[in-house]
Amino acid sequence: VIAGNAELHLEELNDTHAADIAEVVDQMSLEAGKLLLHDLEDEKAADVLIELDEDLRAKILEDYSGLEIATELVDNLDSDDAADLINELSEERQREVLNSIEDPIQAKGLADLLIYPENTAGALMGTELVKVNHNWRVLQCVKEMRRQAEDIEHVHSVYVVDDANKLLGTLSLKKLLTTSTKTPIGEVFTKNAQSVEAMDDAEDVARAMEKYDLIVMPVVDSLNHLIGRITIDDVVDVIRDEAKEDYNFASGLVEDVESDDSVWTTTRARLPWLLIGLVGGLGAASVIGRFELELSHVPKMAFFIPLIAAMGGNVGVQSSAIIVQALASKSPMGSLLKRLFKELGVGLLNGLICSLIIVGASLFLGYETKLAITVAVALISVVVVAALIGTFVPLLLDKYKIDPALATGPFITTTNDILGLFIYFTIGSLLLGA
Amino acid sequence: VIAGNAELHLEELNDTHAADIAEVVDQMSLEAGKLLLHDLEDEKAADVLIELDEDLRAKILEDYSGLEIATELVDNLDSDDAADLINELSEERQREVLNSIEDPIQAKGLADLLIYPENTAGALMGTELVKVNHNWRVLQCVKEMRRQAEDIEHVHSVYVVDDANKLLGTLSLKKLLTTSTKTPIGEVFTKNAQSVEAMDDAEDVARAMEKYDLIVMPVVDSLNHLIGRITIDDVVDVIRDEAKEDYNFASGLVEDVESDDSVWTTTRARLPWLLIGLVGGLGAASVIGRFELELSHVPKMAFFIPLIAAMGGNVGVQSSAIIVQALASKSPMGSLLKRLFKELGVGLLNGLICSLIIVGASLFLGYETKLAITVAVALISVVVVAALIGTFVPLLLDKYKIDPALATGPFITTTNDILGLFIYFTIGSLLLGA
């Protein structure tokens, strides 16, 4: 990549999309990347920096003074990207950058954006937007839009506000194109635009934009004053991150792991779940230990330990995954009792089918009838209990405002392992009279 | 919900967003839902139908004749939604609807859209777009745009084509607003717009739109003729579906399950993975059976069966999840050998840490030193092997064009269970001299 890149003329690079340049920089050595960025036009360099991985960006920004960040980068970025970039700096550097911004209104605007906590609408929003007063006529609107559009890279939507800057609705480009220039805006705009408040949860914003097929969502304060807008590309990132987080939980990773992270970073992301598994394994060992006598009478009981443990784990993860997804999409859930009752039905049906198969297979493979029946009865019980636990735990976590996705992954597997084995050996000691 | 709804006046309903009405219809009885749709204006009813669940839509459409679908629904929908709706009908009904469409050009256009296979750019695209000729001047452009915009609900982007309808680039609203009306378009448009071909994979389209932060993506045929556009809201659905599918695989569900699906539907989605688990469990039983003699000499070996099985499974799922995500995001992966070598390092580090803990804990809990060492050595081996398998299998599946996400979920857990137990008992029979 680097060899091919050396041949590229700088002019061509400035015409290349920032996302493509960022991919190249990501593959280069840190020093080569810095040189490349240095050679680019300021605006392009700023765009490339935003596309880079956070760690790499931090390393590159070490070379920039507060003044350079303010004039070369912040001035060339949309306010939401600029705020994200500043947010990643140390508090001291943040103050340095904000003080180096010439335009006091811009500096104040950025400082305001920095206040919103992560994962809120405010943290996602940018302040660049085109707005018109509902008393204007179409012609004045077009003039005003021309003036405002000078400073804005993409015009997604035109907002209509009253004299107090309260959001009234949106003006479609189509209406603007097809209406006489003398028509007052008040007559042609679409009222009651969807909007979100700055402190709303980012995932709720994503869901609303998805539901209403919106490309840009206006953000208001608690008094309905228009203060910014969120574009769909930032929301797509929220959706991806959310999905990735759930997937990571389900597969036992506690933090985001890239395939090219170091051995140590990867280990750190994986070890917590493994330790839970370890503790669970010791717990299972102690459960089996309590039935050492039974086991010594019917050693073949040990054969089916993995089966019981695996089935309990699998069913538990399935049940909780269904609940986690339902909670995430805010689907109607019905009462807890009804849910558990239904899960009981699913568990019984699954358990029954699996048990019949296991009895048939065990007898075919030449295990004793008594052992086969023990395994079958234990299997139904374990599947039902695992289904109920898998349903109950994520709902419980959600009730106490803990991410229900935590319930999938090794956590529920481990619990069900221990419980399942206890059930298995208890039934075994009863049925086998061991 | 139904009670509150009865009080709504029809006029209010026609002003309500289709997505909100669809949620209400979803909660009503089928008959009540049909009545409600019947009372809505045709355009609103069409929009609501598109928002409904596919099963429910099919039931409601049974009452519509081909002619009604053509005039009341298809005419009021964007071409991509209309094509989706027609696609869900039987072939006979599809022909009926297409023959009932008055405008032969519209009918031809829809028939063309029906050809594209699912999960291609063509299946996602709509044909409504605004395009201008590069030889026109700004004034003529605005006039043409006004004319074209009459038939189009949202104008996302203005495409610039040559006389042969080949895509040249895009014209930004900003440029249009800020340029003199006499300027030729050829001088102000942005060249080399990103585009996709109709047969490109939908997930690749999603990745490209995400990467380049696009809101709308033009679709061309293999000769670069502009034939349609894909909007980001359809791509967001692709991203959600993709994430959901991976998540379902990882949690052992073979099809999409909603929390309000019937017991039987849910069982059907869950049973295949459980059967794999069952077969795996029987496999594990037969592995342990081969070491029955060793087990009868050192019955305490049975205590650690769940621990070994669980750790093998957890590590395998973690490793494969990292690969699955890297493959999905097309991150640079490096050579297979390098990857496996790195995974070996991660496995050794994780295995070593876990083994040290297990030795300490086992001795503390009063297990024999020999057994503790057996478990520890087996644990390192199992963790390393599981990490390698978890890395190798999804890469192998991907190479043979099988969805690598299949590798997560119970499949890899089961394989690792069996292999892990074999390693454990082999080491046990060597170290314990049993």
Written description of the protein model:
2 copies of one chain form a homodimer. Chain A has helices at residues 2-6, 10-15, 18-27, 30-39, 42-51, 54-61, 66-73, 79-87, 91-100, 104-115, 121-124, 138-149, 173-178, 185-188, 202-211, 232-250, 263-290, 292-297, 305-328, 336-364, 369-399, 410-431, and strands spanning 130-133, 158-161, 167-171, 190-191, 196-197, 216-220, 226-231. In chain A, a hairpin with a 5-residue loop joins strand 2 and strand 3. Chain A has 3 domains: 2-119, MgtE N-terminal fold, CATH 1.25.60; 130-239, CBS-domain (Roll), CATH 3.10.580.10; 263-431, SLC41 divalent cation transporters, integral membrane domain (Tetracycline Repressor, domain 2). The model of chain A has no long low-confidence stretch (mean pLDDT 86). Chain A is α/β, with parallel strands linked by helices and 434 residues long. In chain A, the strands form 2 sheets. In chain A, strands 1-2-3-4 form a 4-stranded mixed β-sheet. A 3-stranded mixed β-sheet of chain A has the order 5-6-7. Chain A has 22 helices and 7 strands. The interface between A and B is large, with 115 and 115 residues.
